[in-house]
Design a protein that fits this description.
This protein is α/β, with parallel strands linked by helices. It has helices at 13-18, 34-49, 66-70, 97-107, and strands spanning 5-8, 24-29, 55-60, 78-83, 86-92. 35% of the residues lie in helices and 27% in strands. One of its GO terms (biological process) is cell redox homeostasis.
Length: 108
Amino acid sequence: MAEGVLDIDDNGFEAEVLQSDIPVLVDFWAPWCGPCKAIAPTVEQLAKDFSGQIKFTKCNVDDNPITPAKYGIRAIPTLIFFKGGEIADQITGMVAKAKLEETIKKLV
């Protein structure tokens, strides 16, 4: 697990994401996904930059099929931003760090 990024599963999703007191970014990914691997260092850097302001999590779609199905994940990486237990924003695919920062700043 990357520093500052919490691995979550179907069982812990509600407690870690939906009941969080602060906004949460969920990175839906898989180990075989090239773009997922490419965006991971950016997510890890943002986790350091915004530590304490937003919770950063990763959910492996292969190991946890229930949560991705619930949120209609059809392509990875998909980053979903939650605030107050609700979806606040969603980004699919490889995007620039600036785009992620812009989205995070709107939430914190």
